[in-house]
Amino acid sequence: MDKIIKIGTRESELAVWQATNVKNRLQDRGFPTELVFIKSEGDTDLQTPLYEIGVQGIFTKALDIALLKGSIDIAVHSMKDVPTAMAKGIVQAAVLPRASYKDLLVPKTDTAFLDDTSVDQLIATSSIRRKAQWLNKYPGTVLENLRGNVNTRLRKVNENNWHGAIFAAAGLERIGLRPANAIELDWMLPAPAQGAIVIACRADDTFALDACAPLNDVNTAMCTKIERDFLRALMGGCATPISALAQVINNEIVFEGNILSTDGVRKVSVSKKAAVEAYETLGTDAAEELLANGGKAILHEIRNEQ
């Protein structure tokens, strides 16, 4: 195998870890590889909240362009950052086994403030989904915008007067930065495909497709498809507080999803179960049920806000 597979990645420590993970897996199978570093729009504007930027695929667009131009052969992404409709000519080549899907609260010191109603909580996050779910549980919290790579965000927690900040567990754990005092927010439903890594390539690149195919984890690919179908059916993006989680439990798929108003006051949830063989329509079926039970009104309210 003389062809070198060029792997496109963003430059953050987490993105490089993910791309290196794929690099090692391919090399273990005998494929020569090299990393190609590409800066995304999401990495250059670190001040504007993501939901205000309003760009689908802000962390993936630059890699898509490099793929289509042939500068790289595959791109490695955190799957939750990938738009539900990939760019024309680009396809999903493989989804790696999922890491933790959970969100973490990283407190500046301790979590005593959560039980003290006299304290005005200051929590930082750039995710409108996390903001809405936090406000639903802890109304009245002051939420601050938090942008930057994982290392930068952790540093900002120590530099500011916040009580804490919310992170994806997988991101911190992959690069060994999960603080000892971090607590899992078991009540917080994750973003669709959170914790999963996806490999993308050109639709006509049979070499890259064949090389990556054995890396695909069937259960993770199936569960993330359900979650992303749910998101797509709701026409949600980074400006919509939509959450979803599908899991295979005892050869059955268990799905939970919800949508909240941006202030966290209103919430509509849906739960469904299905046989593994019936997974194809589970995400869209769940979305239709949620819309019929009050989700449509919340979506309409959010769009009017925008």
From TrEMBL:
Cofactor(s) of this protein: dipyrromethane
Task of the protein: Tetrapolymerization of the monopyrrole PBG into the hydroxymethylbilane pre-uroporphyrinogen in several discrete steps.
Keyword entries, A-Z: Porphyrin biosynthesis, Transferase
Family: Belongs to the HMBS family.
Reactions catalysed, as given in the entry: 4 porphobilinogen + H2O = hydroxymethylbilane + 4 NH4(+)
Annotated GO biological process: heme biosynthetic process
Pfam family, one: Porphobil_deamC
SUPFAM superfamilies named in the record: Periplasmic binding protein-like II, Porphobilinogen deaminase (hydroxymethylbilane synthase), C-terminal domain
InterPro entries: HemC (IPR000860), Porphobilin_deaminase_cofac_BS (IPR022419), Porphobilin_deaminase_N (IPR022417), Porphobilinogen_deaminase_C (IPR022418), Porphobilinogen_deaminase_C_sf (IPR036803)
Pathway given in the UniProt record: Porphyrin-containing compound metabolism; protoporphyrin-IX biosynthesis; coproporphyrinogen-III from 5-aminolevulinate: step 2/4
Subunit record text: Monomer.
Domain Porphobilinogen deaminase N-terminal as annotated: residue spans: 5-207
One GO CC term on file: cytoplasm
Porphobilinogen deaminase C-terminal domain sequence ranges: 222-291
Name the UniProt record assigns to this protein: Hydroxymethylbilane synthase
MF terms (GO), sorted A to Z: hydroxymethylbilane synthase activity
EC number: 2.5.1.61
